[in-house]
Amino acid sequence: MTKDTTAGAANRRRAASGDPLGPNSEIGRKLKQYYDELVSDNVPDRFAQLLSQLERAQPAQKKD
Question: Taking the domains of the chain in order of start, what are their residue ranges?
Fold first, then answer.
């Protein structure tokens, strides 16, 4: 089977199942779930303090 034939068969299977990602949809769902959990986590106080110190230590930059 050639590469084009294999790709065409995979596209037909995805179209038939109604799932645009095909077998990768579960991976996509897990990645989205992980990302959502990561973004919703609070920043530890010590880390926030360090970021604040870093911002104060940097010289003011001009905006163009």
Answer: 22-57
